[in-house]
Amino acid sequence: MNETIEIFIASILNHNIALTYILGMCPLIAISTNVKNAKGMGLAVIFVVTITAIINYPIYMLLKSTGTTQLNLLVFIITIAATVQFLEMFLEKFIPRLYNAFGIYLPLITVNCVVLAVSLFFVNREYSFVETVSFSFGSAVGWFVAIVLLAAIREKMAKQSNVPRGLAGKGITFIILGILSLAFIGFTGLASI
To answer: In this structure, is the dihedral angle defined by the CA atoms of residues 8, 14, 20 and 21, taken in order, positive or negative?
Structure first.
């Protein structure tokens, strides 16, 4: 049980999928213009990453038992696409404002490398089902933390800072991400995966 908790903590902090492994940057940068949209996208990623890992684990075990693990990438992508499609239909029906705020980025969760990376990581690290759930949920929460932190900083800077014209927009965003990444390095040694 301690190892499962350690995996969860490490995947949020010192093995943060966005700030350590630099995965999921396109939606992270595009949606982090305000905290409200960032929270919505972060929650959507938490849902998709956790559910797809939970679904992909038994599928991978079935593929492993039949000796067809070379199909795992294809099967993982199909599972991810189906989960995102379900989420997209749900948001369009029940939360249309959030659906409209995401625009093109909601369907892009399908190709967000974070979602696929989590499934590939649990395969490579040979996690048990409980460890997989802990890792996938922790990684998604870590991505959520990264996007909300970035959005909060960008929002505050837009109101109170005069960013030089050459750094405005994406330039300052990359600098902020670099500083956040350095800050998360401070958690190294806290927990390991």
So the answer is: negative
